[in-house]
Write a sequence for this structure.
């Protein structure tokens, strides 16, 4: 691969669709002399999802350009990152990642014989590597280590020392894998610059760093393994893919934070060099695009309907997923999947009267709540109740949700307009004075004369649809709808409070999004409802 390409052609292929390259001149020099050696690493934590097709398509580009490519399964990193992968599951997670990554590469036509696969603990526990970790830790400040991992390592109020080691180990990997370049997402940039700063201090060469843009998830934010609704699992069935794409944020004419369009740009076009829109003849009929810019331009001009875009992406995506799903239908890989990602433990005694019920169904835990960031896009008085507001709130779906709230006594319409808020989205819709409320606006309150009420505040930079979770309960899937008779929210609500530091908590565990803590401006010690 790559034999017929000139150095300039190789450079263009290697760097296409990248957001940034640190060390471009060094890259050009190497390509004039020999093939580039590059590695991509992935921490073996949650199940890989369809956004992994973005780095896979770049790996295909690297191979076409003649690069020597190493894929690192970073099992030790997975453990160091706030123990996202339990020690006893590390080996199983590596096996799962290896099988699913290879299945993805085969799905897009990448020859596996051109790739080298390495497991982190195969060399990261060696005497030489361990000594270099100690040498590096004597140079890197706590400030630099924390800053480097800020966008990659899970951020918590009381971080573990392991999370501070993570960026340094990733820097050392470049030397121990004997590569010229490391490839990753732009969220890795601070780790890359730490490597460039400190590796020369150990006597090692500064490497080239190549960065992909971060592809928005289906809800408009970063696609994440811990946010069920933001990502499509590689083993999701066709109907689940359809369901998640139907909920995806894809506002007519809006090309910003549009995860569906981004998937077309960063996966489908690099792989196929074209994209076909399938639609009814009365709306213009089918059309094949050979230039992504034309797709984006016509979507921005509302010449492509979001429904047609989603249906066309669904068709293309299922073609990519079909061979992966088929491979994982074997008994061996079904067993591996279940072992690497075990379901919550079964309730041995079962629920009274139904011995087959599980803890997953009966246990009252916060991951059963579908809590999201929302943005108030309109607010007016309820037509039949002056004490109630009628709000339209964007929660990252195609249509805003109607919410009826009793905030009239506490906030003006102007104070609510365009405000980011926090909503519970899986309560059963309930009519309030004749109008159905489709979510609950979560607020802090303190009883007294007068009663004080204040909506919760998402972290700065949040987007509608961002998932809100309780620390320690990131991986659970919310109930589709909370059954009123079970009173799940009511039981959890008893322990929802505002801390002394104005942070929303459940049993002293912080409510979080991927960007940080959910807070309240003034009601320290208040209840949340």
């Amino acid at each position: 691969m790559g034999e017929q390409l000139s150095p300039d052609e190789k450079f263009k292929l290697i760097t296409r669709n990248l957001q940034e390259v640190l060390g471009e001149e060094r890259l050009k020099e190497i390509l004039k002399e020999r093939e580039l050696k590059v590695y991509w690493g992935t921490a073996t934590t949650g199940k890989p999802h369809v956004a992994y097709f973005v780095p896979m398509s770049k790996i295909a580009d690297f191979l076409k350009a003649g690069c020597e490519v190493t894929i690192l399964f970073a099992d030790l990193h997975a453990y160091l990152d706030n123990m996202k992968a339990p020690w006893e599951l590390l080996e199983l997670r590596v096996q799962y990642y290896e099988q699913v990554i290879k299945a993805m590469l085969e799905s897009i036509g990448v020859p596996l014989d051109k790739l080298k696969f390495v497991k982190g603990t195969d060399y990261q526990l060696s005497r030489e590597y361990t000594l270099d970790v100690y040498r590096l830790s004597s140079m890197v400040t706590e400030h630099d280590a924390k800053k480097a991992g800020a966008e990659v390592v899970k951020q918590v109020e009381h971080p573990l020392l392991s999370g501070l080691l993570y960026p340094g180990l990733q820097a050392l990997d470049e030397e121990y894998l004997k590569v010229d370049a490391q490839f990753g997402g732009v969220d890795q940039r601070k780790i890359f610059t730490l490597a460039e700063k400190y590796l020369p201090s150990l006597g090692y060469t500064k490497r080239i760093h190549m960065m992909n843009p971060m592809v928005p998830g289906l809800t408009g934010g970063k696609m994440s393994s811990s946010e069920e609704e933001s990502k499509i699992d590689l083993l999701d069935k066709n109907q689940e893919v359809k369901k998640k794409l139907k909920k995806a944020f894809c506002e007519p004419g809006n090309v910003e934070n549009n995860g569906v369009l981004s998937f077309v740009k960063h996966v489908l076009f690099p792989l196929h060099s074209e994209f076909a829109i399938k639609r009814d003849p009365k709306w213009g009929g089918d059309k094949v695009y050979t230039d992504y810019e034309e797709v984006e331009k016509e979507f921005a001009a509302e010449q492509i309907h979001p429904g047609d875009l989603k249906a066309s992406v669904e068709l293309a995506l299922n073609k990519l997923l079909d061979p992966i799903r088929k491979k994982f239908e074997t008994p061996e890989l079904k067993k591996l999947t279940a072992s690497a990602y075990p379901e919550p433990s079964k309730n041995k005694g079962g629920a009274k009267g139904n011995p087959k019920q599980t803890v997953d169904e009966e246990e009252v835990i916060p991951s059963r709540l579908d809590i999201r960031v929302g943005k108030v896009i309109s607010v007016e008085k309820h037509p039949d109740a002056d004490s109630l507001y009628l709000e339209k709130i964007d929660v990252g779906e195609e249509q805003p949700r109607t919410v009826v709230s009793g905030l009239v006594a506490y906030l003006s319409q102007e104070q609510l307009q365009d405000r980011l808020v926090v909503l519970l989205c899986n309560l059963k819709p309930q009519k309030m004075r004749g109008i159905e409320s489709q979510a609950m606006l979560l607020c802090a309150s303190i009883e007294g004369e007068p009663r004080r009420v204040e909506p919760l505040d998402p972290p700065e930079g949040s987007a509608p649809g961002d998932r809100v979770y309780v620390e320690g309960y990131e991986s659970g899937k919310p109930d589709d709808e909370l059954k009123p008779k079970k009173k799940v929210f009511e039981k959890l609500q008893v322990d929802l409070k505002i801390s002394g530091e104005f942070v929303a908590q459940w049993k002293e565990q912080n409510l979080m999004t991927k960007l940080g803590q959910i807070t309240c401006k003034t009601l320290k010690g208040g209840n949340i409802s």
Notes: The first helix runs from residue 7 to 15. The chain has 17 helices and 23 strands.
